[in-house]
Amino acid sequence: MQHQETPSNKIVQWIKTSITARMAMVGFLTLVLIIPLVFVQELIQERARRQQEVIAEINDKWGEELLVYGPILKIPYKSYTEKAIKNTETQTLTTETVTQTNYACFFPETLDIKSAVNPEVRNRSIYKTTVFSATAALEGTFSMPDFTEAGVQPEDIEWENARIILKTSNLKGVSEAVRIKMGTSAYDFVSQYDSAAAHRTLDEVPLHLVQSAFLKTKDVPQEEKIPFQMDLKINGSEQIRFVPIGKSTSATITSTWKTASFIGDFLPHNTDKFTAAGFNAKWNVLDINRPFSQQFFNTLPNLTAYAFGVNFMIPVDHYQKSERTAKYGFLVIGLTFLIFFMIQTLSKIGIHPFQYLMIGIALVLFYTLLIALTEHSNFLTAYLISGSMVIVLISLYTYSILKHLKFALFIAAALTLLYGFIYVIIQLEQYALLVGSLGLFTILALVMFTSRKIDWNS
Fold first, then answer.
1. 0.70 cut: is pTM over it?
2. Cα–Cα distance measured from residue 335 to residue 358, given in angstroms and rounded to the nearest whole number
3. How far apart are CA 193 and CA 175, in angstroms?
4. pLDDT tens for residues 324-346?
5. Looking at the DSSP assignment, which residues form a beta bridge with residue 100?
6. How do residues 426-439 score in pLDDT, each as one tens digit?
7. Cα-based torsion angle of the residue sequence 46, 51, 52, 56 in order, rounded to the nearest 10 degrees
């Protein structure tokens, strides 16, 4: 009795013998493996968010970044407006003069900043951040305020109610009382509620206001320049910055930290800023170098965008590199499956869909290994270890299913080149697109050259 082939048997036979069916199967498995790749990318983002949360918690307890905006001379003055009043009985209009108190803020004529920063690394679990203890000596002079811009008469200036104000991003880290010597007298600062800071936008640095007691009239620069001097001792984290509000601002920041980066609108002018002991950076900023004046009336703007300073953050970019690597996962899986498809087609050796799936899962596992290892070592070491583990695993598996050592060695060499190519792209920034495009062009040329031997009619 002759055995008749059922439809299911015909389908299985067609998949085994047809190149088109094998291509469809490989394409389907490649698309299926996009799902775990998406989960891997979400895992990387979750770990990166967790890192930021831990760093923010450490910084919150020690003290946030340090930004100093001041000292600023604040003087009240009177302004007058006319208010119309209508008599409901006689229907006549009369005017009444309303007196208002406004404030003028004046920046120093000269401002000299000398700061010493002592940073250290704080760890929590596998995460770490940089905190520091800083001292800053600020001294300079205030010149006679000029009220002509606002049209204020001399008799309307309340010299007896003048104060010195200071804005900073980090009140929590202040370790000693803040005091300023203005002229011949010393004045303590007290903190004040600042509604502008409370209603800041998300991208603005929160600035807290502190102000001195009323200055003695002899310490207010009514006729001649008045010198000032103050010291700050503050614990902070990540970075320290100063706003160059002096008509002539000079600053020096020294530290034992050797991997600092200089940030802000202005960079140090000295070429010998890095030394064997750390760095000694110097700035010199003139009023002509920045786009704001020396006095403001009624409102004091947030000028933190023009601050300069030093960033002490530990560069942690392995999550970013891992995420960029995972984005090439589809390419790695697709090219690896293509290599196995070419081997299967040219050598007539059968490879089961399940075996393709196992190889694909091993390729996805590379990214989870990479994430886990980068949290305990540098990116290069983690990349080499995870890549080597996956290459050895797939090569041994290839030898076990194909029974040919040359195929296993070829797969190992191809994966090594592929992972090396991806690593080079990850390290490059400006030339990543160029190198990636040339690499893909070369791969395409090799596939086209090799595929010419395939009988596509089978």
1. no
2. 15
3. 20
4. 788 888 888 888 888 887 777 77
5. 79
6. 777 666 667 767 77
7. 140
